[in-house]
Each structure stands twice: as C-alpha cells, then as structure tokens.
Amino acid sequence: MELQTTIYIFVGLSFALYLGIAFWARAGSTSEFYVAGGGVHPVTNGMATAADWMSAASFISMAGLISNMGYGGAVFLMGWTGGYVLLAMLLAPYLRKFGKFTVPEFIGDRFYSKAARNVAVLCLLIASLTYIIGQMTGVGVTFARFLGVSSEQGIYIGMAIVFAYAVFGGMKGITYTQVAQYIVLICAYLVPAFFISLNLTGNFLPQLGLGSSMSGTDVSLLSKLDQVVTDLGFGQYTTTSAGSMLNMFFYTVSLMIGTAGLPHVIVRFFTVPKVADARSSAGWALVFIALLYTTAPAVGAMAKLNLHGTVNSAVGLTQTAEGIQVNADAVKANGDLYATEASLVYEQRPDWMKRWEKTGLLKWEDKNADGRIQYYNDATKNEVAKGKAEAAGWKGNELTVNADIIVLANPEIALLPNWVIALVAAGGLAAALSTAAGLLLAISSAISHDLIKGAIKPDISEKGELMAGKIAMAVAIFVAGWLGLNPPGFAAGTVALAFGIAASTIFPALMMGIFSRTVTDKGAIAGMLAGLFVTLFYVFAHKGLFFIKGTDYVDMVGGVNGFFTITPEAFGTVGAIVNFAVAYLVSKMGAPVPRHIQELVESVRVPKGAGVATGH
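Below the sequence we write its predicted structure tokens.
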C-alpha cells in the first residue's frame, strides 16, 4: 500500500478511537470534569499519567536532542525521570491527602489567602501556556510531514481534535483517551527501535543494542559513532556535556523539581480513590515512562549514525530493501569521510529527504557547487577536521536537520516498512495531543475553579462552573494555537522553559506548604513572585519579551548565559533558590502562621484517611 494512504489510515483510526472514548466517557459533573470522579484505578491512572507526561518533547524532540547533544542529553533523562521520583515521594500522597481539585486550591488553603491562590493561578497559567507551545509545535511538525499540510495548518487541525475530546470529556474523557494514546505512542516508539537495533547490531532490544558491537564486526556502535562525529568536527558523542558542569547540574535539578511542580501532572493523583493509590499510580507511571526513556538514548544514537551513514558512504552503512544494513568491511576500514566519492550526490538522495525538505525542517545548500551533500561541523575548533575539510574543498556545512524531526524521520532514514512509518506518525500525534489535553484541563480548572469560583463568584452553580470550565478550555486552545504558530524554539527547549517556571514558582510553594509550619501567606506570595520574576527576566533576556523575536536584552544579564554560564532552560533552579530564600525571610518578618494552619500541615503529612477529592 502507498505510504501516504497507510498514514491516513493509521492516523484516522487513532483519531476515531480517541473521539469515541471521549464520547463514551464524557463528563457530566464538576467532579468528573476535574478529577474523573476520583475513581480511576492506579494502573490505569499510571498509564494515563505516562501519556500526559510523555509529551511531544519526550516523543518527538528528546531523542533528537540526545542525538545532537550526545552525553549532554542525559540531563533530560535524569531530570524528567528523577522528577517523578520526587513527585511520588514528596508530593503526590500529601496532596492527595489534602483532597481538593487543584494545586492553587491547596496553596490558597494552606497559606490561608485568596491572594496566594491567585498568584498560584498566575504561575500555573504561565508555566502551562509555555509548556503547551511545545506541544502545538510538535503537532505542527507531525502534521506537516505526515498529512502533507503546512505546520500552521497542522496546528489548526490539532486544535480542532483536542477541542473535540477535551472540552466535552473533561478529566474523565481525557483519562481514558490518554490510556489509548499511551498504547499507541509506546508501540510507535518501540517498534522502529527494535527494527533499527536489529539491523545495526543484531540485537533486538535497543537498550542492549546501544552497548553492542555493530553486526559482523567487533566495533562497538558507540565507538564507531564517536569516530564518525569527531572526524567530522562534532564533539565526542559519549562525553560532550550540556555546557559547563554547573549548568548541567542546574539544568537537571530544574527539570527534576519542575516535573514535581507541574500542575497538570499533579492533578492526576487527585483522580484515584485513596492516598496509597496516589503513590502506586506514581510507581506505575514510572514503569510506563521507563519503557520510552530507556529506549531514547539508543534511538538518538542510532538515528545519528544512520543519518551520517545515509549522506556519507565511508561510515559503512548500506541501503537495502530490508533497511539500512552494516557493511562490516567498510565499518572496520574507517574510510576517508572527506573523500569526494563518499559524499552523497544530491540528485541520488533517498525519498525520505525529499519528503522532509517540503516541510522546511530539512534543508540543503550547495555551498561548493559540487552537487554533493557535505554534512559536518563547520564551526569546529578541531584543527585536524578543519584542515581535512579545507583540503577536500568543502565550503561549509550544507545540511540543516531540525532536532524535532529525528524520531519522526527515524524509520524513514532506516528505510523501514510503510506501516512502521505510519505508526510513528500516529504515535507522535498521540504524544502531543495527550499532553496538550492535560495542560488545557489544568488551565481550565485554574480559571473556572480557582479564579471564578474561588475569587470572583463563589456562589456559582455546579452547572455554571462546568460551563465556565469548558469555555475557558476553548479559549485556552485558541491561545495555545497562536503561541504554537510563534514558538520561541524547538519543542523540548520550549518545554524546558516551562519546567523552569514551574520549578521556580509552584514546586517551592508546595514543598514549603507541606513540610514547613512557619512559612506565612505573605512569605509564600513574595517567594512565588520573586521566583517567577527572576526566572522570566533571565528567560526573556535570551528569548525576547513574551517570546517576541527581536525584543531580547541579553546584554543586561552579562551576555549569552551570562550568569555563571547558566542557560535560560536551566535557570529554574536559581529561581527556586530565590523563592525559598525570599519566602523564609519575609515569613520571619511577619506574624506567625495561625495555629489551625499549623495543625493542618501536621495532618497533611500523615498520608492516611483521605476521602474523595472535593471542590469545596
């Protein structure tokens, strides 16, 4: 069957499944809309949480970043999975014990202040909207390639699909839809990884294939990849870090505590019946997440090797009807990567390159007018590689590959069957749409439940609150779509900014709310605002005010990464430190926390006896 037809069938069937589930599980009350009625089984909730969590950044962009960064990409693996451990151990059971619908509601009650609740809503909205940019970017990338539309049109289609099942289904519909989306996305991620690992190493499991020798040789896959990339002027794949070691540490911490502070993930633990189920859900979520996260390093490394092998025959990979295969003799020979005949003739490029060129996410420019593709690091400080490039007559890198296409293009690069490519298309869309739905529900509940019911109109009826939630979600979808059309960067980088905002605002407030009896309302408010301000100030300095291009002021912060070499994606850790410090200092200067609030803190820390999550 022709590729495009196969893609339409796979994507169409998956969409029909999601919409059918949403209709079957549509919400009829605020409890079902916000927390799915509080009766979701821990295993089901763990699977839905994994889908909610494994967004376009995880599915589409993370392996691309690892492919580009090598060892430095470990910050995403360690940060995001480590954050889940924090969430399971330090937050989930205690927030479930508190028994309300939303994170701002906990903050408002614990810090006995509507102002604190409203500040938490503000922080939640900023973090969630920044996060959703990455999801809509991922939707646009996926639709652009696989449905033959522009990325802008892809975002519009994605908005319509999310609107259909999120607005009417609420948390109940989203939960069961996300279970289906998890199954689709994990199959879409693992199946091509199995094929590619088998082709390159003869080992079926990519986790083991990554550390294996290439088929028919005693050359390990990673050592071959190191040899190829260093010869071409890139950093050594297995040792290159994400900037300085300080930045790598701060980046990892920011992702960890940002994960633990993401409201759309936390709210999932309000959907289970008991406190023990909240902890169990987090454990199951880690199992389901680990299936993808332990595979991602192999996907990134093998995709990078396949890409180099496609455009440079000296790497030692050969295209066959069964996919890219290892040419053992060529691999062991370590041929001249700069030889004229090694570079791929542009007119002989494979079909997958032609398809991705139409999206604008893969570009070629013939800088030395030889009709061949030269793919290397022309900004290298490696004098040997620079000298070889000059001697070969290379005038600069000619191939630009967007990091967001690596996973989606991976089965095409490896020349896998059409049905595998179609499955990956459905998986990419499932990943982006599942997280977008969870984020939109968090935004909706913040506006309808925390702002309208909690501050503006406390006497609103349940029916009115439900309608307000649906309207808020519809508006949020349009705002998210607009932001997706004007993203500040690639998907995972944008998502990292959202984690930094959550890390610097929501996580410290939750930790102090649960584990400190001395932090006051004024301390919490000052801490959240201080953390939000310093983080946004540094981020906007690099990315532009509200991510508007051309409005950056990087010189005011000492140049690019001017604060001790820390990148804006890693700055959430600094914001969190500022939040904690300001909160404690302000609390020391004011009246102590009321006695009944101190008793509330003590009772929340005993994770027993929680009833059903309530909105009142």
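The longest helix spans residues 151-201.
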